[in-house]
Amino acid sequence: MRDLYYPIALKLKNxxxxxxxxxxxxxxxxxxxxxxxxxxxxxxxxxxAALKKLHRSRxxxxxGRAFSLADAAGAELIIAATSDPAVNEKISKLAxxxxxxxxxxxxxxxxxFISPAILRTSEASIAVYTHxxxxxxxxxxxxxxxxxxxxxxxxxxxx
Length: 159
Known about the structure:
The chain is an alpha/beta fold. The protein is built from 4 helices and 7 strands; from the N terminus they run E-H-E-H-E-E-H-E-E-E-H. The chain has 2 domains: 16-110, NAD(P)-binding Rossmann-like Domain (Rossmann fold), CATH 3.40.50; 117-158. Helix content is 36%, strand content 19%. The strands form 2 sheets. A 5-stranded parallel β-sheet has the order 3-2-1-4-5, sandwiched between helices. The protein starts with 15 loop residues before the first strand and ends with a helix.
């Protein structure tokens, strides 16, 4: 039987989250984490221009170097978003050993949680996921809901 993920909503406001990696994938994850109030620390030798801007404005902390085991101290949630599969696997093992939740962005089997496609409106936050099997389908379902949200609300208001 394949792994199934229990849906849960985490309160991340002011909680320490460690993101390892500074590329486009890390950038997408970090922007979402910040929307939910997480305190984000990024470990990566380099950052995208958008992440550098977040660092300059003190929205994220940046350690401009390769990941070390000590970086995980205090992190409650860890996201491995490097382009090196061996490093991501090492991060997964470390996080699990210390009891932290971990997401390896491109390998659900190494993760203790997966990140759903998220639609936020003033009325609701909607998470869509496919148990890590088809992220594109999750994204497409989220976009379908987004495109039809006003139709749903007008229907609901008629009830």
